[in-house]
């Protein structure tokens, strides 16, 4: 190859890489990195969780909510509000075959001096994002706390059904199923590299006053962590309480590992009975 | 005239390439909620409380008339249903549902691994038969017969047959159908 041709090849290569890699355009735009969030945090017995520090974080960080953008605390009613955040860009990059998705943000609550992830939301590719409204429950169990939130799209805390205790007539109440994600050591990953896996708790609640959601209080009869094979089941996205032939069931729908590291739909079903009784009847 | 034709052709190419429809051809936004993917229980039934907002319900009255509604919300003992366009929300209690001859929901039927294995095995079997036929129909003098033995033909077509059988099995068996709802 002559030096002239060689130079031409280099120029063509550089131009080709530039075209394939992206094209900057001098046009400014703004994205909403987080939506305005209003919410309420309650302890599992229904009392408001007051003075709980809340952190909103955007972007990736090694620890939950490592890159805090906004901070607030719950008031006496357990309520909090955070404004939306945005980011201004002065250059648009056009990159072939790149699907841009709306930025995500995380909410964390500092419970017992430990910052816990409680909610993930979505901002917008526009300047403003639709506001999010969340209702969170903090579970206290065996000396640790776990939190989970409901919004208009996802129900991670489901309360319903009805239980009775045959040994103590007149004693009855509701079930609550609470879905959380916790770092868990699972097979196939190095030690000290825990993966986020689903943990689901069932509570047997006795209502002790109040009819609306703000004044409702509960006596917690029992709390059970449902046995899930977290080496197989990698995520749970839907929790439901339903009745079959008079028996209340809690079903957990999500994904499990399948052949050649693929993922497939999985549903675990637990039959719920008197306080403390939860038995797996279907699923991996 | 030429300019108009050129503009229309450009528009057509853009539509084909980008999959975009001109504004005039776009349908009005549907008032429906997105339909969730519902599944039967492992026991092959669908209890009412497994319904989710957006589910499509078909109610059949005693005189055989169907009405189709979408679930807006599921209360403790009442369903809020919405008609496709314009009609007011319908509130039906669980008790009132019993007055219908049939209550059905669009849901995926219970998946059986046996069905999946059977569809793959059936596809492989059909593929093997097709491979044998393809091999036998080749002219004895053709070069392909010398290059590929009968086993090669059968194995290659059976592999494709297996994949096609699996896909057909999934497409035909794993799609939402009208399933009866079990009332509490």
Quick description:
The complex is a heterodimer of chains A (284) and B (184). With 284 residues, chain A is mainly beta.
Please tell me about this protein's structure.
The complex is a heterodimer of chains A (284) and B (184). Chain A is mainly beta. Chain A folds into two domains: 25-154, Immunoglobulins (Immunoglobulin-like); 155-284, no CATH class. Chain A is 7% helix and 55% strand. Chain A contains one helix and 20 strands. In chain A, the strands form six sheets. A four-stranded mixed beta sheet of chain A has the order 6-3-11-12, with no helix packed on it. Chain A is globular. The mean pLDDT of chain A is 87. Mean pLDDT of chain B is 76; it is low at 18-30. In chain B, 17% of the residues are buried. By secondary structure, chain B is of the alpha+beta class. In chain B, strands 4-3-2-1-5-6 form a six-stranded antiparallel beta sheet. Among the domains of chain B are: 48-110, Roll (SH3 type barrels); 113-174, no CATH class. Classes of the chains: A mainly beta (284), B alpha+beta (184).
* Strand count of chain B: 6
Please state how the strands of the largest beta sheet of chain A are arranged side by side. Answer: 6-3-11-12
End-to-end Cα distance of chain B, whole Å, is 69 Å
| Low-pLDDT ranges of chain B | 18-30
Please trace the helix and strand order of chain A, writing H or E for each element: HEEEEEEEEEEEEEEEEEEEE
CATH class annotation of the domain at 48-110 in chain B: Mainly Beta
* CATH topology assignment of the domain at 48-110 in chain B: SH3 type barrels
Strand content of chain B: 15-25%
**Arithmetic mean pLDDT of chain B:** 76
Count of alpha/pi helices of chain A: 1
Oligomer: heterodimer
CATH architectural category of the largest domain in chain A: Sandwich
Mean pLDDT of chain A: 87
Determine the fraction of residues in helical runs of chain A and give it as a percent range.
under 10%
Name the biggest interface. Answer: A-B, 13 and 13 residues
Structural class of chain B: alpha+beta
Overall shape of chain B: it is: elongated
Looking at this structure, what is the CATH superfamily of the largest domain in chain A?
A: Immunoglobulins
- Most strands sheet of chain B: 6 strands, antiparallel
What is the total domain count of chain A?
2
- Rg of chain A, alpha carbons: 24 Å
């Amino acid at each position: 190859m002559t030096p002239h041709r060689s130079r031409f090849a280099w120029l063509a290569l550089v131009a080709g890489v530039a075209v394939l890699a992206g094209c900057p355009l001098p046009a400014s735009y703004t994205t909403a990195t987080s939506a305005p969030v209003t919410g309420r945090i309650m302890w599992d017995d229904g009392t408001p969780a007051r003075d709980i520090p809340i952190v909103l974080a955007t972007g990736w960080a090694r620890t939950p909510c490592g890159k805090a953008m906004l901070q607030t605390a719950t008031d006496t009613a357990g309520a909090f509000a955070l404004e939306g955040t945005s980011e201004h860009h002065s250059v648009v990059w056009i990159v072939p075959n790149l699907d841009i998705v709306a930025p995500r943000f995380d909410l964390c609550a500092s419970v017992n001096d430990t910052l816990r992830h409680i909610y993930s939301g979505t901002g917008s590719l526009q300047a403003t994002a639709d506001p999010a409204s969340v209702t969170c429950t903090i579970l206290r169990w065996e000396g640790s706390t776990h939190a989970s939130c409901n919004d208009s799209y996802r129900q991670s805390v489901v309360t319903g059904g009805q239980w009775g205790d045959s040994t103590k007539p007149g004693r009855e109440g509701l079930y609550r199923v609470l879905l959380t994600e916790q770092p868990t050591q699972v097979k196939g990953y190095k030690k000290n590299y825990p993966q986020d896996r689903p943990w689901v708790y069932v509570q047997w609640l006795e209502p002790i006053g109040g009819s609306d959601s703000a004044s409702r209080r509960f006596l917690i009869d029992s709390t059970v962590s449902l046995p899930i094979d977290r080496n197989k089941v990698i995520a749970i996205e839907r929790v439901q309480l339903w009745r079959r032939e008079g028996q209340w069931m809690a079903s957990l729908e999500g994904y499990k590992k399948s052949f050649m590291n693929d993922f497939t739909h999985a549903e675990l079903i637990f039959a719920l009975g008197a306080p403390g009784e939860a038995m797996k009847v279907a699923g991996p | 005239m030429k300019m108009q034709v050129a503009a229309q052709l450009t528009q057509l190419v853009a539509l084909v390439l980008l999959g975009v429809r001109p504004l005039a051809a776009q349908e009005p936004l549907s008032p429906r909620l997105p339909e969730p993917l519902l599944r039967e229980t492992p026991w092959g039934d669908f209890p009412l409380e497994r319904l989710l907002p957006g589910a499509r319900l078909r109610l059949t009255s005693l005189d055989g008339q169907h009405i189709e509604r979408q679930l807006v919300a599921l209360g403790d003992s009442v369903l809020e249903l919405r008609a496709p366009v314009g009609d007011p929300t319908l509130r039906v209690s669980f008790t009132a549902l019993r007055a219908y001859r049939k209550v059905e929901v669009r849901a995926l039927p219970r998946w059986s691994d046996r069905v999946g294995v059977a569809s793959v095995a059936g596809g492989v079997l059909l593929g093997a038969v097709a491979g044998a036929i393809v091999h036998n129909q080749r002219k004895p003098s053709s070069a392909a017969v010398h290059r590929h033995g009968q086993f090669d033909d059968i194995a290659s077509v059976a592999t494709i047959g297996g994949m096609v059988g699996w896909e057909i099995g999934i497409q035909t068996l794993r799609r939402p159908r009208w399933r009866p709802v079990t009332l509490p």
